[in-house]
Amino acid sequence: MFRSDAIESLFPEVETAAFESPEMLPDAPLFPEEQAFIGNAVVGRRAEFATGRACARAAIEALGLTAGSIPVGNGRMPDWPEGITAAITHTRREGREYVAAVAAKTDGSFGIGLDAEVIQTLKDGVRTMIVTEAEQSEIDALDPGLHNEAVIRVFSAKEAFYKAQYALTSSWVGFGDMALTGLSGAATTLVPTGSLAVLKQLSLPVDYHQILSNGLVVSGVTVRRS
């Protein structure tokens, strides 16, 4: 586990601390209430959970704060300490293991989201659920060799957005409620596709930032209240 300048660069609007691990840390310590939540899970899920909490605590401590228990709250999302906005991501696909977390001090006016995904081919049904018609048009204009990567970029950015907005709204937002522009290299922006009421609480559109490295897409999003 190590501090990640690359992930911190995904949040140019705010000061963050981020840590990542290229492998699972199954023996990372957990607080009693965390252990109570995950104790009956399979070994792999417990390793993801423990590694994510270890990265998150390291990030919080790097901000100069004391990192304690991070229980599971509403919506099965981490219940972050007062004054902290943060996100955890983990993936175990295509033989890859990767876990990361990012944290920032906040006055409640903004939230941050982080997501990492392995570049892979998604089933048509899953792809249709994630990608809007406008996004598909942008993808179709790309070189065919970039299509899978572009779909994962869409998926990852929307996952990061969901985490960031949830920190402010505690509400569900679907894949079709936001759309990416800039898949061909222009301005990288997430825009609302309709009039979902919860989105009116947020300052939109928002920029998204991504790193593509070693078969991974890592996305960062900062969302502010309107």
* General form: globular
Give the strand tally.
Answer: 9
CATH topology label: Ribosomal Protein L22, Chain A
* Tally of individual domains: 1
Rg over CA atoms: 17 Å
So, the CATH homologous superfamily? 4'-phosphopantetheinyl transferase domain
Task: Kindly report the average pLDDT value.
Answer: 94
The low-confidence runs, each spanning 5 or more residues with pLDDT under 50, are none
The helix/strand series, from N terminus to C terminus, equals EHEHHEEEHHHEEEE
Query: Any idea what the CATH architecture is?
Result: Alpha-Beta Complex
Distance between the first and last residues' Cα:
36 Å
Structure class: alpha+beta
Largest sheet: 5 strands, antiparallel
By DSSP (H or I, 4+ residues per run), the number of helices equals: 6
Largest beta sheet: strand ordering: 5-9-8-7-6
DSSP strand content: 25-35%
The percent range for helix content is 25-40%
